[in-house]
Amino acid sequence: MKREDDFESRRASVANLSDKELEQRFWSLAEQIVDPLLKLGYENTSPAIERSVLLRMGFSSIEAKAIVNGCIERNLLGHGAGNVVYRLSKARSMDYIEAGKALCEGRLWDEAAAQF
């Protein structure tokens, strides 16, 4: 099977553009491709991502798993597990590590959920 060469017909729409205009068109098209991906990243998360955030905050993997599971049970994961811990710590005027450990122990979840 031979592929028909349609380069000239596809090129016609950009043939009269300067290098600068071609570059602007390229970046415009690239943004159209990337924008939905960025939107998904901002609006969606996963338990793995949230555990990773908590690990970088200084929690152990066992603590991170407990916090994320608690967030899932209470429909808070969309707000971000790290954000849940942070807001609870600010509301209680306590260190965020202490707030996270309290959540791991099953305490303060009602107060954490009330922040949202």
Tell me briefly what this model is:
This protein has seven helices and no strands.
Main attributes?
116 residues, mainly alpha
Briefly note the structural class of the backbone. Answer: mainly alpha
Q: SSE order in H/E notation?
A: HHHHHHH
β-strand amount: under 5%
Q: Spans of 5+ residues with little confidence (pLDDT < 50)?
A: none
- Total E-strand runs: 0
- The overall average pLDDT, rounded, is 92
Compute the separation of the termini in Å.
Answer: 60 Å
Q: Largest sheet at a glance? A: none
Residues in helices, as a percent range? 55-70%
Textual characterization of the structure:
With 116 residues, the protein is mainly alpha-helical. It contains seven helices and no strands. It has helices at 7-11, 19-43, 47-57, 61-73, 81-92, 96-104, 109-114. α3 (47-57) crosses α4, α4 crosses α6 (96-104) and α5 (81-92) crosses α6. The longest helix is centred in the N-terminal third of the chain and has 25 residues, at 19-43. The N and C termini lie far apart (60 Å).
List the helices and strands and how they pair.
Elements: H1 7-11, H2 19-43, H3 47-57, H4 61-73, H5 81-92, H6 96-104, H7 109-114
